[in-house]
């Protein structure tokens, strides 16, 4: 397929769809083997595939470079684990909407425009609507799920910053491949605690999640970002909560209330305003989320 300015948006949209449907599949795996086990399978398969493709060099790097990639790997592990933990408590559309405040807040923090601050305030209101806090008693409100999703958002922001720093000192796919090694090693002791519950179907599902949530979207965005205008990329990325809700409906039969849909629309609009005017990520993997 020839990639140009007309076809590049389709690749990014394909990556967004792939990530969120991968997350929906993960939501079916988490109840059986837990969030750490699900994350371990995803990261392990993604690491093996990416290391075989990238063949990263282990030599010629300074100690500070290894410190950067280690922090990147830790952020990657924490981001995915907290997000998958939120899926055990929240509909996927709600979880993605809440966590999207992370990259949105990071983008707004780098801006000095009043419009971006207003957009973030609108997104915060949207998250309040999506969470259901206005029409749900405190006893019924799943604060654990919202907390995990919010933590995933913070880790997503850290992931973006560390991804950019890693891209400056490691060429090509090397930095991401090495970060996946770190994150897999870190999560392994927690994920392996559920290995006695793993079935062949679970392992196969983990492979599918790794391809849908990591390998495929990264490859698509890697090709697209060479040709894509920054505003188009930001607007397409802002569609993630909507695609997540669609994936939740199709795969998990999760239906959101009208107020939650309205809140999601606010977050998408705010994200399109803020992210659509930001500079293109320095490295393509900076755009990838934890879905």
Automatic annotation (TrEMBL):
Domain EamA: 145-275
Top-level taxonomic group: Bacteria
Subcellular location: Cell membrane
Membrane topology: Multi-pass membrane protein
Pfam families found in the cross-reference section: EamA
Membrane-traversing stretches: 36-54, 66-84, 90-110, 117-137, 143-162, 169-191, 203-220, 232-251, 257-275
Predominant location: membrane
InterPro entries, alphabetized: Diverse_Substrate_Transporter, EamA_dom, EmrE-like
Keyword Transmembrane helix attached: yes
Keywords: Cell membrane, Membrane, Transmembrane, Transmembrane helix
Keyword Lipid biosynthesis: no
Similarity comment text for this entry: Belongs to the EamA transporter family.
Protein name: EamA family transporter
Organism: Terrabacter terrae
Organism taxonomic ancestry: Bacteria, Bacillati, Actinomycetota, Actinomycetes, Micrococcales
């Amino acid at each position: 397929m020839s990639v140009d300015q007309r076809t590049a948006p389709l690749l990014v949209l394909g990556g967004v769809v792939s990530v969120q449907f991968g997350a929906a599949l993960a939501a079916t795996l988490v109840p059986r083997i837990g969030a750490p086990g699900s994350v371990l399978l995803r990261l392990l398969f993604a690491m093996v595939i990416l290391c075989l493709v990238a063949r990263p060099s282990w030599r010629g790097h300074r100690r500070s470079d290894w410190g950067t990639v280690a922090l990147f790997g830790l952020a990657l592990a924490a981001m995915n684990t907290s997000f998958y933990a939120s899926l055990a408590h929240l509909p996927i559309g709600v979880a993605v909407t809440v966590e999207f405040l992370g990259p949105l807040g990071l983008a707004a923090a780098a801006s000095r425009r009043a419009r971006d601050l207003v957009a973030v305030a609108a997104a915060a209101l949207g998250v309040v609507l999506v969470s259901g806090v206005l029409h749900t008693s405190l006893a019924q409100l799943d604060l654990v799920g919202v907390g995990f999703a919010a933590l995933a958002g913070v880790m997503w922001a850290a992931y973006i910053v560390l991804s950019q720093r890693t891209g400056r000192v490691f060429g090509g796919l090397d930095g991401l491949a090495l970060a996946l090694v770190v994150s897999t090693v870190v999560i392994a002791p927690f994920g392996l605690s559920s290995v006695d519950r793993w079935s062949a179907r679970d392992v196969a599902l983990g492979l599918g999640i790794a391809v849908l949530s990591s390998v495929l979207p990264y490859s698509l965005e890697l090709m697209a970002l060479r040709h894509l205008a920054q505003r188009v990329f930001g607007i397409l990325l802002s569609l993630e909560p909507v695609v997540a809700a669609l994936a939740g409906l199709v795969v998990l039969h999760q239906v959101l209330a009208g107020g939650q849909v309205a809140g999601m629309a606010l977050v998408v609009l705010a994200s399109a305003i803020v992210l659509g005017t930001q500079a293109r990520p320095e490295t393509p993997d900076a755009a990838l989320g934890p879905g």
